[in-house]
Design goal:
single chain; 85% helix; elongated
């Protein structure tokens, strides 16, 4: 469990930062809307982080990263797109 928390700690920090930026820009409105935006941003960033982790983005050479991206199962790409799409839809519905 500590390994999972260690991986999502950075993403959770970015989600909180994104929510604070939204609060700063909008100033007001229901509190649950900001909490929902926080969850949506967290979902989007965690999804992108997991995909980057799988293809080892910035860890290996670019050609190796591209090869790993091509060799990922289509289900992995579909999962990433579905979760990212849900996060974007949530942000749109909340807004």
């Amino acid at each position: 469990m500590s390994g999972v928390l260690q991986r999502v700690r950075f993403v959770a920090g970015l989600a909180v930062l994104g929510t604070l930026v939204a609060w700063y820009l909008l100033r007001g409105g229901p509190v649950l809307a900001y909490l929902s935006i926080l969850i949506a941003i967290w979902l989007l960033l965690a999804t992108l982080r997991e995909w980057a982790f799988r293809i080892r983005l910035m860890d290996v050479a670019l050609n190796e990263t591209l090869r790993r991206g091509r060799n990922l199962p289509r289900a992995s790409h579909g999962m990433m797109l579905a979760h990212a799409g849900l996060a974007v839809a949530m942000i749109g519905m909340i807004g």
